[in-house]
Amino acid sequence: MRITPLVASLIATLAIGSAQADEAIKWKAIGQPLATGLIQKNIEQPFFENFAENTGLPVTVDYKPIDTTGIKDTEQLRVLKSGLFDLVSIRASQNSRDEPALLGLDLVGLNPDYETGRKVADAYFDTLDQRLQKQFRVKLLGVWPFGPQILFCKSPVASFADVKGLKVRVSDQNLAQFVESIGGIPVPMSFAETHQSLSLGVVDCAITGPSSANSAGWTEIATRQIPLGVQMGLNGYGISLKSWNKLDAGQQAKLQTAFDTLNSKIWAYSEELYKDALNCNVGAEPCTTGKKYKLISVEPSDADRQLLKGALQSISLPNWAAVCDKVNPQCSADWKAKVGPVVGLK
């Protein structure tokens, strides 16, 4: 059978289209735990599930929240470095044992509000990005907040001083040292384990953001919240350099622009959730994003505010610097050069 020029042209076009389809990039991504709530559900997951549309790249992403993978949230940098995943929603404090520089984003007492947190993240970004690229072959694509991490307790606490002798769930060593300094007993524990541990009395108190506590049901068990953020819950997005380097310069620019947009959206949404969840947790209006509970919100005392303000210089910074400088002698010096001016430290 003779093939006409028109048919031949159509066959060639279809062949090219098929080849291009075969070249579509497929990535695997680890997200935040389902249990952490609305940032994961409403912002992060839709972004990754509609990745090609959001980035303008021929990339599809197999996205899985980390608490559905069997992988510990302390192992994220390792799985990126190994090539098992291409993209990860990095839980910064949880991975700080593998890379202490991560904790420099969110030392206890460093970020008292969203404005400061954003300035710290911007100032420290390049330093942290270079470190992650060197040590783990991971490029940092952005930093974003869960929001102020506050204290929830079953016991009728009225100030930080009342934590003395109580067991407190913590997510990193810097926070553990602060809890010890006020007489509490720090208990390192994953987010997913905390609800049951509060219920069974394994811990008396726990620290997280008010929206995450609401979504995870901690507020079913706790009776008090003290709305004074000891940390900002800063996290990030990272991509393996192997995957990043497969993109051309134009594609890399598109990807970075998309993550810049995503990060800005989370910063705004996080602040909205924080304010709303504080209301929801005590049964007040407006409450539009969570369930209403009947916690008592304890107004932070001047002593608590001063204690937290002083903790940065007296506890969290020197203790973190000692650990980080063992791994990288320039660690604290780099931090002080970039972040110090933002928070008034030399």
TrEMBL record:
InterPro entries: DctP_fam (IPR018389), TRAP_DctP_sf (IPR038404). One of its GO terms (biological process) is transmembrane transport. CDD domains: PBP2_TRAP_BpDctp6_7. The keyword Signal applies. Residues 1-21 form the signal peptide. Keywords: Signal, Transport. Belongs to the bacterial solute-binding protein 7 family. This is ABC transporter substrate-binding protein. It comes from Pseudomonas marincola.
